[in-house]
Amino acid sequence: MSSFISVNGEALRGVQGRVLGRTQAEPFPIDSWPEIQGPLSEVLQASKLPAKQRATSVKPTVGQLTSLAYERGLLPADLNELIDLVTAPNFLDQASLAAIVKNLYPASFVSGDIIIKVIGCLGHGKLKPSLTIQAALLKWLIMIQSVAENRDYFIRAYPVLFNLLDTAALRLLLSRQTGSDPALTGLLRVYKDYYPEIIVGDATRGKASAFNHPDSQWRERLDEIQRAYAQRRASRSETPLDAFRVARHRLKGTKGGPIPEVHTSHATENSITLEEIESVDGFVKKLEKIELPNQLIAILGDPLLQKLLLLRPQAQAHARACNWLESYTQDLMAGESDIHLIDVLHALKSYVTATKALPPIFLAFLRELIGIWDGIEGRELVLDILTFTPVADFQGLQTNVFQPLERRVLNGTSHSQIKILEFYTSLLRRWIVLWMSSDTQLPKVSENAARLVSHVNNLCSTLIQTSPSISTYAKVLDFYYLTSSLASDADLLVHDQATAVPSATLIYNMFFTASPFTVSRVCAVVAKYKVGFQTAMEIAKINYTPRHIPEFNGFLMDICNCLWRQRALSGEDANAKGCMIPQSLVDDLSSYITTLSMGGSLASLFSLSYSPVFSLFAISFLRELEEEVEEQEGLEIKHAGPVTKTSLRALGNRGGLTLSWDDYRRGVLHHLDSRGMGGVEHLLSITIGALRREQSNH
């Protein structure tokens, strides 16, 4: 039971200070944002006049209105007026109406009246909106189901929506016209399942597509708006939670019923209820007599109950909390729960954030939830909560939690892959903190680290192929900067995969990008691995070389050959792999470079002077030196660039800047370091003998 509650924390303390750009002294609006009133009124007035009769164009005002709706969401009164506008005849152009519908982000719950209005505007008729607007409104209805005040409106209106679809004859006509359209085939299969007497012929035999969420990005923005508004309400209308008093009215469900609060109805003359506790002294003195409340799931939002179960863990408390979660999951599956999933997730996140732990009962709940989850509603919350997953057998976690999670979140886009990568990065970061702060050896740390890193290696390799961008490389490097810290752990070092380096393909792809900062970060990660390996082997006092070290030494040598030794793409040195470029291609490129009469060979074109990403910084460094010398002594000639060892010698002989080749290159490294690209200097200074000796002398 010790894992049920971890540390003291106030899970749902009210948000203080500025929220949504307002100060705490400002009144909290109930139905409308004051900022929206001006543009909303202008748009409503303009909608009553034909375009030719308006003094000015309405489009800028529509843009201002939709921007505010996107930024802050719409409160009930504003949302109602805009729904009236887009569902009734008016003189606004279709582009403006479409922009308004696209930005109908409710900041709070959507009332049943609004849902009925939208459903009532669907269909054919002169007074109906255009079919384009109707389609947008229908899409909107699908996306706001989770924030509807009562989902019963959708259930009751389903026959209406179903019968608004075209007749059977027209559906067959569409099928013949469009051929084996997957979306239409999927729709026809629905008809066949619910109305088998309708003759659809062979139209359902083609490939059918699943009915996916219409706009996941829109839904994510809606979640952000709803979350911000809920926090604002908490900071305005609620007093902060008292750590030694029970919390009241914190988490509202869709029908106004809160997630169970602390209520105790079985107290005796000899017991004390949590509701009677008003101070820390009272809590301590009466700890052993405090009666458990009716609903133990109230632990999600009540810091005092969290403290009680931390100090007085009980098996029955675990069972009772499990019962509530099981019941809620069943209601959720049946669509009968009157508490929004988003509310439970917000409460759970607040709890794990405060306690820094995810107890087994809540992990079990999330495991069951993922099985019925759409992968969209509350996605950020689910991922944030799961980053608190305790260190355990990774194989079991992967099978029961992480693989089902990936199946729900991954949708074939690089955006979803990055979300999963960010999740694993956060998870590994928390695990590392636990490992480093633990006084005792955690069981099977090495194996769990090995499997986690190995699993994410495959994800990173996929990502750089599906989305080879600077932002993607940054996320990948964030993960490997973490894994590189594992390399300094002597206990982990003996397990090959626990400290597995990034694959050579990953390193070379990121090293040859057009971003100097990405190249510098690649060097920083490689340098961190190198220092870690050396430190761990010295501490462990073992003569053991993990099998991935040769691969690591390969791209370490290749990077040094490119940047410092002017032997790019060469495989002649020990450990060098020539950046995995086929020798035949290297020969062809060398022949081509010779014909250009550039004065340099292919092997030198990736050096600091010629590098596509660093050459500008190299010549800028030289220009700064020349300007300093010219102000003091004067110069007869300046270097035209790019700089080589030979050109520097000739420059000094002709009255130009006197600078040695090594001093020039060290100066470029310092120049890069001063501009936030210190990874290059760090890697070279711990790898190149001359630089390493110079650094040790200093």
Labels describing this entry:
698 residues, mainly alpha, two-stranded parallel ribbon, 30 helices, 1% strand
Can you walk me through this structure?
The protein is built from 30 helices and two strands. A two-stranded parallel sheet has the order 1-2. α11 (280-285) links the parallel β1 (272-273) and β2. It has helices spanning 34-46, 59-72, 76-87, 94-102, 112-120, 131-143, 152-163, 168-178, 182-194, 216-237, 280-285, 303-311, 315-334, 341-355, 360-372, 379-386, 394-409, 414-437, 445-466, 470-486, 490-493, 504-511, 516-540, 549-563, 583-596, 615-632, 645-653, 661-674, 678-687, 689-697; strands at residues 272-273, 290-291. It is mainly α. α26 (615-632) crosses α28. Among the domains are: 34-164; 606-697, no CATH class. It is globular and about 90 Å long.
What proportion strand?
under 5%
**Count of helix runs:** 30
- The low-confidence parts are 1-30, 237-241, 249-258
What is the number of strand segments? 2
Order of strands across the main sheet: 1-2
> Radius of gyration, Cα only, in angstroms?
32 Å
Question: Could you estimate the helical fraction of the residues in percent?
Answer: 55-70%
User: What about the largest sheet?
Assistant: 2 strands, parallel
What spatial form do the alpha-carbon principal axes imply?
globular
What does this entry show, briefly?
58% of the residues lie in helices and 1% in strands. By secondary structure, it is mostly helical. The two termini are 55 Å apart.
